[in-house]
Amino acid sequence: MPVPKVPDKGSVTRRGFGVLRVAIWEEPGIFALSVLASMLYGGMTVAGGWALGWSTDHVIRPAFESGETTTGAIVTLISLFLGIAILNAIGVVGRRLGAGVMQFRLQATYRNRVTRQYLKLPLEWHHQHSTGMLLSNANADVESTWFVIAPLPMAIGVIAMLVFATIAMFAADVWLALVGCLVFPLVFIANVIFQRYLQPLATRAQQLRADVSEVAHESFDGALVVKTLGREAAETERFRGPTNALRDANIAVNKARGMFDPVIDGLPRLGVLAVLLVGVGRVRSGGADAGDVVQVAFLFTLIGFPIRALGWVLGELPRSVVGWDRVQRVLTATGGMEYGEARLTSTKAARLQVAGVRFGYLPERDVLAGMDFTIEPGRTVAVVGPTGAGKSTLTTLLTRLVDPEQGAVKVDGVDLRDLARDELAGSVALVAQTAFLFDDTIRGNITLGGDYSDDDVWEALRIAQGDGFVKALPEGLDTKVGERGTTLSGGQRQRIALARALVRRPRLLILDDATSAVDPQVEARILAGLRSAVHDDAGAATTVLVIAYRKATISLADEVLFMDDGRILAHGTHTELQSSTPAYRDLVDAYENDAERRLEEAELDLDAEGATA
Amino acid sequence: MSAAEASRLDHGDNAGGLQTLKDGLKVSPELGRGWGLTGILALTMTAGRIVVPIAVQQTIDKGLSGPNGPDMSYVAWMCLVCALGVILTAGASYLTTVRLAINSESGLATMRIKAFRHVHDLPVLTQSTERRGALVSRVTSDVDTVSQFLQFGGFIFIVSLGQMALATVVMFFYSWQLALVVLLCFIPLFASLKYLQRAMSAAYGVVRAKVGEMLSAISEPVVGAQVVRSYAIEKRTQDRIDASIEDYRKTATKAQAITGLTFSIGGLAAGLANAGVLTVGVLLGVDKQATLGELLAFMFLVSLFSDPVQIATQVLTDARSAFAGWRRVLGVIATPADVVDPGEDGVKQARGPITVEFNHVDFAYPEGELVLRDVNARIAPHRRVAVVGETGSGKTTFAKLLTRLMDPTSGAVRLDGVDAREISFESLRERVVMVPQDGYLFDASLAENVRFGRPEVTDAELVTAFESLGLTDWLESLPDGLQSPVGQRGESLSAGERQLVALVRANIADPDLLVLDEATSAVDPGTEVRVNAALERLMAGRTSVTIAHRLSTAEAADEVLVFDDGKIVERGPHAELVGAGGVYTQLHDSWIAQRSAV
Ligand SMILES: Nc1ncnc2c1ncn2[C@@H]1O[C@H](COP(=O)(O)OP(=O)(O)OP(=O)(O)O)[C@@H](O)[C@H]1O
Ligand SMILES: Nc1ncnc2c1ncn2[C@@H]1O[C@H](COP(=O)(O)OP(=O)(O)OP(=O)(O)O)[C@@H](O)[C@H]1O
Ligand SMILES: [Mg+2]
Ligand SMILES: [Mg+2]
After folding, report:
1. Where are the transmembrane segments (chain A) (predicted)?
2. A69 contacts in chain B (CB < 8 Å)
3. Rg of the Cα atoms in chain B
4. For labeling, which of A70, A258, A386, B548 is most exposed (least CB within 10 Å)?
5. Hey, where are the domains in chain B?
6. B356-595 belongs to which homologous superfamily?
7. pLDDT digits over B433-465, tens only?
């Protein structure tokens, strides 16, 4: 059965009731229980008023007037009031617990759904949404959607309470009951007006809280830039804006509350006074007795507070609707990748084909166009190209982080789109350009929960030239690396990321400039390790695609793909490209040319000096 | 986060309530203002609450049972007076709320801003593992907890206490015997309260911890989306998330159960008190020691007493977590900033050629071993210095000390002979700028990012800046030019482009000393050589320190500093070092082998 629909249009209250319906539909059992408990509570609250009226007439007044009483009467009194109190307490516990269970279950259910969606939606979708917003969708928004559940059972109990109270009042005296019929609706209307008035103020405060948080988040995230450019004071000014706005919004909320609270509080009190006044008249005319007056007055006192629960529910509805909409935006987002059934069964090096691939992030600008090439199993291919040529973009296509708009990427002849879910990761490993580490241990960052022995991990670290520094750490593989790996140096982070790929012994290894932050000596050792690792006894076990600028890395390669502006400009061996493609030559020889230029300049300077001397 | 760091940040977390209040007042003086009038108003509104019980007693004893039967006019007059009392109470209540709100919200805003400013001075932000998220929550949710408590609970709490006290006094005024009965009935509640409170705050402590775990589990697939996807660890990630969500649900439900129990115990106590008062009241009435009106008024007083008791028990939990939140924020403010701005007292240096000296500098990260040992160096004006060395040898650390992102553990860094610690930040940051290893960009337009260091720069100057680094073509290739959005952390640009933007940003800031920490590591060699040549031209008149693994930079430098394991092991011009047969020779050999391999 599908989740009931929440109307897209209509008043906030109407939509809010739609959200409540969803909640009840999701958790009908616990909802019924908590409503029952709450009705018990409502009934017993009214019974408290009735009991006082009844005992005034039947026990207390006779005792005061006659000057004597019986044990039986006393026992009746005690058991009446205690019994009501116990049942009331049971009602309260049941109501609160029920509301809590329901609220937290709903939160959990929706958090599960939201995070499943995060894992399902394509990377493109992730790029379009800010981290802060996604985190708050799964946390704060889910929470605010279901806040309304906390007072919901109580509110329903209050409705029951009002019905019981009205009956009890009419049973006591019609005129007194009419006072009640005047006061209760007034309290209710005051509540509604209050919530209506408060709602935009509260929404604004909520929005400003999000703003404050966003500024703080961004400012702390970019702290190094803020600091190096000495912008702390300016950042503080930037933070002051939303902070002061939030202060004013909170004060406005408080003012509204300060205005309405005494009204909502005072109305039942004035009601009691009215009951006393009318009551005296009724007693004089003989229509009612003192007990009736006391009972109705006491009921007012008892109900004055709980009746606010109705206001709470109404007041939470707008927030709930906003939260619901934000959560729904995630839940209804489409574009999850489709997977096929195909498997990759080979255990040998993979064959990679890229056929007629076109791709762009923005509609008006192709980043890759007319990509066509094949890499035979066991070959090592260097992809070379200037900054912004589209190399990293290509790697995301090869690992199916995104799908091409046109054309196809195939591994062992199978279109990636036909592969079963998770199948590709068993064969292909990517070391991204920016090493991303989780806030986890070094071991956790390498195995990613996979089943690898410590020996495997150390072996991978050895090839990545990371074993030395990891051994030197006091806790070795169990060292926590901090958020995004902040406790490690840039080169250390890269080597952990490299080990993560190597430990999986992939059939296709893709390295995106994965040694940019290590020094030349370490890089040379990594390359040597790689060379022997990808070749097992039977020949090459791994096809390697490496994005690189340095000749040492390029020299590892059997062939070179030179690309610029999203196109392959040349494909061949390094030597071939060097003679055929001037742009390639300029790029890979840049350092040598630069060194030569310097040398010449230095000589010229020397000559010049010599000439002047 | 290590235990010691935790204690550094949560400085004063164990301070008592009074201490918190004192510290809080010092940080936000607004909180202490205008208490005289507010106090009088609060008293008035509390006093107004006993109007109704008195009215009931008067009506029953004088109005209904007067000598000539029910006395209408007496009751009418009394009700009128009481109604005025209720309205007066409402007015006082409004004024109290507003005054309290203005004071507390202004105080909290001040505290929020102070904490924010202070966090930027904390070393944890740039050098340690403390989660940034936790710091963000110090200036957001922690302050919000306090604010919301004050909005919903704090005010009610104070009023409730007043109401309880007043109800007690009036109860004793009407009948000391009945008053004793009421107090007696509440003793079990008060006795169990301490225990229940402890259970509640323990439960909510666990809830908070579980929220933290849940948030960090949820953040994995969001911040690490690419790794999660490319390594197909969705299942493991989802399992972790599910477990943490479930954990949170369980602990939150348990905490809710304890709260519900506490609340119901309050209700039971009230029921007990009702029964007790009626029983004893009837016995007293039989003895003619109490009137009917007094007894019935007492029933109203009991609810006047027990309602706030119940509310207070609940609010007390919120109060605890609000206080804890407050202490956490104050703790951040009380954490000594390692790198302190001397501010007004600081030396303001003239702009111009700069000399840098390192004198016997040692440095260790918190709890770590020394990563720099006895570093001595002198960088003369106009010099181009290259810093090279193995990964992890301390180059970035050196750069951070040079730009005073951190202070040495011992020894001193001097700029033009003045200890960096004595120079005002304003002057220091104007003169010294670093481009860090990861070029961080804000989620804004290209122009806003580049302008970050000097907001007054015009668009035309920005274009010139790109031009001077030879990046005009690239800028023109962007669909929206300077207005192009760069995405979160600059992720809509390629890694190399990101670095180029960070470089332009630093160049615009126009410092006397420019420190580049592998600032072009992801840029292709052709572009790098061009950009470096341009920078060299632009840097005429500036001093520069460049960290690079590509030794082309070292070849071009006036002087090379070679780091090994936290020490400077060699120094001198490239030409001298390359043949010396030391660390540099080895590095350079590998570099040449790499550069010309094939
Ligand atoms: N998420 C994105 N949204 C929009 N444009 C993007 C995005 N990522 C990259 N681009 C653009 O696509 C082009 C290719 O980027 P890519 O990262 O593939 O380059 P690259 O060849 O890896 O460069 P580098 O050598 O600097 O790493 C760049 O011009 C970049 O600005
Ligand atoms: N925030 C930190 N907390 C603890 N230790 C750190 C921290 N940052 C760096 N280190 C350690 O200090 C040492 C020196 O690090 P540093 O970043 O200065 O190296 P580096 O020479 O810049 O290396 P790379 O070339 O890889 O960038 C390393 O062993 C590193 O693990
Ligand atoms: Mg790239
Ligand atoms: Mg470094």
Report:
1. 30-52, 72-93, 146-168, 174-194
2. 282-283, 286
3. 35
4. A70
5. 1-174+314-338, 176-289, 356-595
6. P-loop containing nucleotide triphosphate hydrolases (3.40.50.300)
7. 888 877 788 888 999 999 888 888 898 989 988
